[in-house]
Each structure stands twice: as C-alpha cells, then as structure tokens.
Design a protein that fits this description.
This protein is an alpha/beta fold. It has 10 helices and 14 strands. A 6-stranded mixed sheet has the order 6-7-8-3-9-10, with helices on both faces. Strands 2-1-4-5 form a 4-stranded antiparallel sheet. Strand 7, helix 6 and strand 8 form a beta-alpha-beta unit. It is elongated, with a radius of gyration of 24 Å.
C-alpha cells in the first residue's frame, strides 16, 4: 500500500463536441494527492469538473491525458487492480428498476468477480438499512432508499477507496445523517473517502482535507484545519482623523494602508483581539474617526476563489490562486 490512496498527475479531459455542441475542456491539468485514510472533500461550483474527475477515477470516463494511480496501481498499466481498489456512489440514480436490492448487490459483486462465498449482501443490506426491502423491486423504493442502495453497490468488492458524488444533494436530514454515520464508520474502519458536496458546513464538519476546483483547475487544496485557520484571519479597518506614521502592532498583526485612506489591521481571531489593536492605535496617538471589522467565512472564501475575484479583505486568508 502507498501513503497516498490516489495520485493524480496532469489530468486532462476534453469532451468531444457532438453535433451543435463545441468540444469542452472539463479538466485542465489536475495534480492531486489524496492521503490514505482521509476523508477528502472535493468542492466547486456546478460544471467545475468534479464529476468528470470522479468518473475518471471510477473508470467510467476516459481521460484525455495524464496519470491516475489508485492504491499504487496506474490505471493504464494495471486497470483491473486500480478498478478493484475503488468503489463509486454516482451522482445519478442509475438503478435497474426490476432488480431487488439483494439482486442488485449480487449482480454488482459478480461484475467485480467476487466469489459467491465471499459476498456479503446481508451485511451490506443491514449497513444501508434495507434488510426489510431486500426483495422489493427497485422501482418501488423511495429516492432515499435508492441512494442507500447505490452506496451498498459501491461497497460489494470491499474497495480501499470509496467515492461519493453529491451523496446528500436534495436528500432529507434523516438520510443525510445516516449517510454520514455510514461514511464515518467506513472511514474509521480504514477506508479512504472522497466526496463532493455543495454544503460547505458539511464539508467543514466531515472532511480532513479539502480541494476546491473551478473551471477544470485545482485552485486550493489543504487540510481543513489549515484552511480554517487561515480563514480565522480577520481585518479591523479604521479611518484615522489624520495621516500618521507607525503603530506598534501586537505580534502577528499586519498593517496595510488602503487606497481609500483607511488602515486595515489583519489579525488572527485566535491570537489577537480587536481591543488590543485599538489600544495600540490609541497608544500611537491616533484619533479614530471610524472603525469596522471584516470577517470572511468559508462561504466568502469559496465564492471569492471560484468567482475569480480576490477575497474581500484577504490576503488574510493566505489562500493562493
Ligand atoms: P461538476 O460535477 O463539477 O458539476 P462536470 O464534471 O459534470 O462538473 O462537468 C464539467 C464540464 O464538462 C461541464 O461544462 C459539463 O457541461 C461538461 N461535461 C460533463 N459531461 C459531459 C459529457 N458527457 N459531454 C460533454 N460535456 C460534458
Ligand atoms: Mg457533478
């Protein structure tokens, strides 16, 4: 086993244009390592390329160029082994309406060459809470049940890596909680998890690592805690009565003169209080006409990064584009 569950190098995907639609460059050279054992959140607006990336990992979409290694196996060199190492819960509900959940799991296991003696359909049905529905036709299942069945199908061959594409988009809170409980439990059992989600709070709560992609390019990737620590940055903006020289700022505080005549003091919420900064400003003999704070949150940063504009008050986030 390698330290990275997944290694992606210079991954490119161009969808051929067909008929009236032009060719589309969906991935523009992605480099991404996903450490074994982590929960990685893949974030980005609609059309960013998340599903394309995930479907390439799953072997459902052919890459145009680049290298993908799953569990140490190069997709091009060891396609069978790399495929066996990954299970995917797709974004779309693509179930055969005439299969029962048990049959769907058995057929999937068969596709992956899992011998009958090693199948564990009952265990999976229990995990996804469908024991009662084991013999019901898929078309009679609710949307939530179908989603759970898709999760079950992704698990039949005991993959080391589980990929979930928007698992909680449009599902009710109960199902969402159930999915997350399952994901956590699987991760605690050692499974590496990659998921896409639109819910930033969810990503924040669930993911050890976060990667944000936009227009087919990776724009930031870090441990969630690091990202949040950076976003812990705040700015205190004062309007002085008159121009002035220097202020003896508390440690870690940076002072920037802005074009509009205000002075921004960027600081980390964990290390400094606005009060300490104001004390320093007053100690420098400056009269303050106006004062306000600027507080970025994950959503701000995400929007700023993905709209191509600079974040409002930061540099302070330390997130580079
Ligand atoms: P996301 O999952 O982040 O919303 P996708 O990977 O689905 O993004 O799509 C990325 C881009 O590629 C979009 O512009 C989308 O329209 C395009 N795309 C996705 N699938 C296809 C396809 N099969 N044929 C042509 N273009 C596609
Ligand atoms: Mg998608």
């Amino acid at each position: 086993m390698s330290e990275n569950a997944i290694e992606i190098r210079n991954l490119r995907k161009t969808y051929d244009g067909s008929g009236r639609s032009a060719a589309k460059e969906a991935l523009k050279g992605i480099d991404l390592d996903i450490p074994a054992g982590c929960i990685m959140g893949l974030l980005g607006p609609n059309g960013a390329g998340k599903s394309t990336l995930i479907n390439i990992l799953a072997g459902l979409v052919r890459k145009t160029a680049g290298q993908v290694k799953i569990w140490g196996f190069d997709q091009d060199v060891n396609p069978r082994q790399s495929r066996a190492a990954i299970g995917v819960m797709p974004q779309e509900l693509n179930l055969d309406p005439f299969f029962t959940p048990r049959a769907a799991l058995e057929v999937q296991a068969g596709l992956y060459g899992v011998p009958k003696s090693q199948r564990r359909s009952d265990e999976i049905l229990k995990l996804i809470g469908l024991e009662d529905k084991a013999e019901a036709y898929a078309r009679t299942l609710s949307g939530g049940m179908r989603r759970r069945l898709l999760l079950g199908k992704a698990l039949v061959h005991r993959p080391q890596v589980l990929v979930l594409d928007e698992p909680t988009a449009g599902v009710d809170i109960e199902l969402r909680n159930m999915l997350w409980r399952n994901v956590r439990r699987l991760n605690e059992g050692g499974m590496t998890i990659i998921l896409t989600t639109h819910y930033l709070e969810e990503a924040q709560a669930m993911c050890d690592e976060i990667a944000i992609i936009n227009h087919g390019a990776l724009i930031v990737r870090d441990r969630t805690e690091n990202l949040l620590a950076k976003m812990d940055a705040r700015a205190l903006v004062i309007t002085p009565d008159a121009p002035f020289g220097s202020v003896a700022c508390p440690d870690g505080v940076e002072m920037t003169a802005r074009a509009d005549g205000t002075i921004a003091f960027t600081y980390s919420r964990n290390h400094t209080t606005p009060g300490a900064i104001l004390d320093a400003v007053r100690a420098a003999g400056i009269t303050i006409r106006d004062v306000r704070t600027e507080e970025p949150d994950l959503e701000d940063v995400f929007l700023a990064l993905t709209s191509g504009k600079a974040p409002p008050s930061h540099d302070a986030t330390g997130v580079s584009t």
